[in-house]
Amino acid sequence: MVVMDSDLRLRVVHPTQRILTGRVVRLLEGYPREVRVGQPVLVAVLTAASVVGLLMLLVRSLLSTGGGGGARRGWKDLKKGPEFLVTPLRVRDAAGLLYEVELHGHLPQSALHPADHVQLTLRRQPDPDLPPRVERIVNVTTGQLLTPRTATVWSHLGPPLLLQALLGALLLAGVAACSVVTG
Question: Which end of the chain is more exposed for a tag (fewer CB within 10 A), N or C?
């Protein structure tokens, strides 16, 4: 689909296909975008983690060790979500159409250059106004297979908090199972 504006020049369009093959025209300036953290997910994780936190606090007070726990991030910090780099990428296909896609996350600096022949695997974004994001890049020019990685909600919450939440959920499930069996 070719879109013309009033000056009869070709405009950049968003691709609709899953695989796009073409040449890199330009990597635009990147900017940060925030990953949204859903409140129900955050409440569930923090509730389960607080069970183990309270248990650890009780054990610490019984043993009367003076050392406090590590600094915990607050609700506001956890709710904000991680930021990741978004780099708009323009690609021209064999028919001469100019497409814009988004590259989320980081790649090595030497991974893509203008005029590189690439095959992109794309995924639609939740917001239909945004161009599709790149899931995988095959740089035919250099023979590299590239997969950009972004921060996720789980990496933002962190392994210690998730482990504590898992232990809290298991503890709550154990208490519930015991009350059902003995009840």
Answer: C
